[in-house]
């Protein structure tokens, strides 16, 4: 069975994308699943959650279009870290034909190794998020529920 790719996303920041990705990865791992978490946000919050503070010093992170895969393992969950340098890829991808499929081409061969590939995305609808959506089998949209009461 080929692994499923899930994108955890929202155009809004601070709605729990990274927290949901991290917790889902560990919950699936606890069920005996092989999981790869991909930090696809130049803010690198998921990477920091795995204990890597100075992401700018990492030699191998997820990079597009010429991605160097650097799969690390933390507590049984494999992950691909990110860094601020991923933000440069967003601008470069706008100029390339078929750029929305680059991440898909990178992740498709990894489906054989994993039950689940979880992609944590940035809070925008730029080329990075479009790439993640094009690679996905399913999308999980995180939201904050805000209730307003109006007294008339």
Gist of the model:
By secondary structure, this protein is of the alpha/beta class. It has 5 helices and 6 strands.
Report on the structure:
Strands 3-4-2-5-1-6 form a 6-stranded mixed beta sheet, with helices on both faces. The longest helix is centred in the N-terminal third of the chain and has 14 residues, at 17-30. With 152 residues, it is α/β, with parallel strands linked by helices. It contains 5 helices and 6 strands. The protein has helices at 17-30, 45-49, 86-93, 102-107, 127-135; strands spanning 4-9, 35-40, 72-74, 77-80, 116-121, 138-141. The model has no long low-confidence stretch (mean pLDDT 83). Strand 3 (72-74) and strand 4 (77-80) form a beta hairpin.
Summarize the topology.
Blueprint lengths: L3 E6 L7 H14 L4 E6 L4 H5 L22 E3 L2 E4 L5 H8 L8 H6 L8 E6 L5 H9 L2 E4 L11
Parallel strand pairs: 1-5, 1-6, 2-4, 2-5
Antiparallel strand pairs: 3-4
Number of helices: 5
Helix content: 25-40%
**Chain-averaged pLDDT:** 83
In spatial order, strands of the major sheet run: 3-4-2-5-1-6
Specify the overall morphology: globular
Terminal-residue CA separation: 57 Å
Features:
alpha/beta; globular; 152 residues; single chain; six-stranded mixed beta sheet
